[in-house]
């Protein structure tokens, strides 16, 4: 549609996102308090950015530049045996969507566009519900995450399913609409069954709502446990039938995946940022004597802390699982089952909680570091 060469798409995307983040940094870094974060922002820019990304990514050309895009396109265009139907043992919703699009003769571009509407649309809606006054900055945290573009063009089913889970967790944390969240979780499982992990992690976060430090403790203990007994833990979890893909991921192929093997200290360092933020938030809660509904200078109100604890707890517990299987082949695929919440936890912590007096400036620099890491990874060829 845009007449842009496939090889230019990542460059345009990462360059545009970095420029938008720099604009926010320039605006917010000049503030010495948190007044800008408390100002209600118009929804127009966020909707405009979301729409632009849906069209830009959804109508991309079919090319190996976008990884599994070519495989999905081949199946869609050449398979004569597409099936559909409700079956918990299969990803019935995605199969049915593909079958329906094929049945009515939609071109592959429209098929991909529909996926991006769900992938990006769920993130936009979740950001608006969680951080209505700062949703523009919140969505920038999401689209500048280093996994965003990859899972919008390569890991399509996983990305779409996880975006739906973001919305489901939002309904649990922000509005306590458990039935709505359960329906969304079932739909996400119908797209990619691996989201059973963040679903279970969310249930754990709700159970540990009043003791969030336990989640941080579990995450910390998972590191030595993985170092000591990582292989045995991986084999045990694979035997539970969590996801049949795990059987193949636990088999090491030195010729194909050496770079993804072993205990990934770099991945662990990256994953630790939301954990450290959670630890620091609760350290500040202890220092300030808790939080009060009627105190505008308090760190947060009770509802905001509840939302943060569920978001961060879900991330931390899901990431703990990944640490346990970090030695598995392609363990980065399991890492994404927590990483998809990474920018949401950061955004909520920096945009909603009054952690520092100069919150505006700290938020701006956090966004710059977040986007800068992604852009740096792209420049050195890791994305």
| Strand proportion | under 5%
Weakly predicted, low-confidence segments: 246-260
Distance between the termini: 24 Å
The helix-strand sequence is: HHHHHHHHHHHHHHHHHHH
**What integer is the average pLDDT?**
85
Shape: globular
Backbone CA Rg: 21 Å
How does the helix and strand content classify structurally? mainly alpha
Characterization of the model:
69% of the residues lie in helices and 0% in strands. It is globular. The protein is mostly helical. Helix 11 (196-207) crosses helix 16 (302-324), helix 16 (302-324) packs antiparallel against helix 17 and helix 16 (302-324) packs antiparallel against helix 18 (342-352). The chain has 19 helices and no strands.
Task: Give a short overview.
With 383 residues, this protein is an all-alpha fold.
């Amino acid at each position: 549609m845009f007449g842009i060469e496939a090889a230019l798409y990542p460059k345009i995307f990462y360059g545009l996102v970095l420029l938008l983040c720099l604009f926010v940094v320039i605006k917010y870094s000049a503030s010495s308090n948190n007044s800008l974060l408390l100002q209600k922002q118009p929804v127009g820019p966020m909707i405009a950015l979301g729409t632009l990304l849906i069209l830009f990514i959804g109508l991309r050309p079919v090319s190996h530049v976008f990884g599994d895009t070519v495989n999905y396109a081949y199946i869609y265009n050449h398979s004569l045996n597409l099936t559909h139907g409700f079956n918990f043992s299969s990803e019935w919703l995605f199969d049915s969507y593909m079958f329906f699009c094929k049945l009515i003769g939609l071109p592959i571009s429209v098929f991909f566009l529909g996926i991006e509407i769900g992938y990006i649309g769920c993130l936009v809606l979740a950001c608006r519900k969680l951080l209505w006054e700062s949703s523009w900055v919140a969505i920038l945290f999401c689209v500048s995450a280093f996994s965003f573009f990859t899972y919008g063009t390569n890991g399509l089913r996983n990305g779409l399913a996880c975006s739906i889970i973001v919305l489901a967790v939002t309904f649990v944390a922000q509005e306590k609409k458990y039935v709505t969240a359960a329906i969304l979780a079932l739909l996400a499982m119908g797209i990619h069954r691996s989201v059973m992990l963040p679903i279970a992690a969310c249930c754990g976060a709700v159970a540990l709502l009043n003791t969030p430090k336990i989640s941080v403790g579990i995450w910390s203990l998972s590191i030595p446990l993985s170092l000591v007994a990582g292989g045995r833990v991986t084999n045990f979890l694979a035997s539970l039938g969590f996801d049949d893909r795990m059987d193949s991921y636990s088999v090491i192929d030195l010729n194909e995946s050496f770079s993804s093997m072993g205990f990934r200290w770099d991945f662990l360092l990256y994953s630790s940022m939301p954990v450290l933020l959670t630890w620091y938030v609760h350290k500040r809660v202890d220092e300030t004597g808790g939080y009060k509904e009627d105190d505008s200078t308090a760190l947060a109100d009770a509802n905001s802390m509840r939302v943060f604890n569920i978001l961060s707890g879900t991330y931390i517990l899901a990431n703990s699982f990944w640490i346990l299987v970090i030695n598995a082949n392609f363990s980065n695929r399991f890492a994404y089952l927590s990483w998809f919440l990474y920018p949401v936890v950061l955004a909520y912590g920096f945009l909603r909680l009054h952690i520092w007096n100069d919150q505006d400036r700290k938020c701006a620099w956090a966004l710059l570091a977040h986007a800068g890491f992604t852009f740096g990874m792209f420049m050195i060829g890791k994305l």
